[in-house]
Amino acid sequence: MITAFVLIESERTALAKLGETLRSIAGIAEVYSVTGAWDFVAIVRVGRHEQLADLLASEVAALEGVARSQTMVAFDSFSDFDLEQLFVDKS
Prior knowledge:
Domain Transcription regulator AsnC/Lrp ligand binding: 6-76
CATH superfamily: Lrp/AsnC effector binding domain/regulation of amino acid metabolism (RAM) domain
Strand order of the largest sheet: 2-3-1-4
Pfam family, one: AsnC_trans_reg
Order of helices and strands: EHEEHEH
Oligomer: single chain
InterPro entries: Dimeric_a/b-barrel (IPR011008), Tscrpt_reg_AsnC/Lrp_C (IPR019887)
Strand content: 25-35%
């Protein structure tokens, strides 16, 4: 499982709706509205790097209201929660 954190700066006119729009994209697990230099942090969880690249280029960057973004790919997780189990296909 690939986990990435995407920092997103929004155009002011898109602030009210961009969070929900981002959250509706398959592969984006969570979206947070934050303070500071960025307006949103999206947590992306996908199976392959190619899926991440496609999601960022075809979905996020193409959204109206996204001024710029920066992506950080996680190497490891230091958590008490077994996040991998939340995303295992049970079908």
